[in-house]
Amino acid sequence: MARTFDDATRRNIAELCAAFARQPPAEAAPTLKRAAVAIALTEADDGHGTAFLLTRRSARLRAHSAQWALPGGRCDAGETQPQAALRELHEELGLKLSERDVLGLLDDYPTRSGYLITPVVVWAGVHAAITPNPDEVASAHRIGLDAIELEDAFSFVTIPESARRVIRFRLGGQQIHAPTAALIYQFREVLAGRNTRVADLEQPVFAWK
Fold it and tell me: Which domains are present in the chain?
């Protein structure tokens, strides 16, 4: 469904996020390090729709280098998840937003590498000037919401190492895996008014470390 980038879309997505019932963290959550990512909404490249920002991590990073990711990172001491997501969005892409721009939070996602990630949906605005930090971000991309609403945008496979399904998000000729794919998938489901859970969706083995 085409979503124009305007105040009506902002209100609609804020209402959908407010209607989404977040799931309480799992019992293992206290042992995990808190992290947050931003699902930052802005104008699509062609100016005719709404998109979210997706980055390709720098190849120089020690962890998960060169992987596709939503802007984000570990929460600093005393930070809330929205505060951490906004700080990371500024550090990685130069976008200075406030908590007034937060539309809602999705479910926490526990990773194999020991983090509990909170996705924070943020309205970045029509004139979002993106300046990637080369120390952290190799490239930044605007992914139209219509791309994640395609019937074949997501697929599920099994691996010998786990009984859980591995989720994949097809972007062009590439496959993006969990946790990023799982978070984007839940956002797609929220846009459709569905409370679909994703914490049980698996990551590929290369992302377990």
Answer: 7-146 (3.90.79.10)
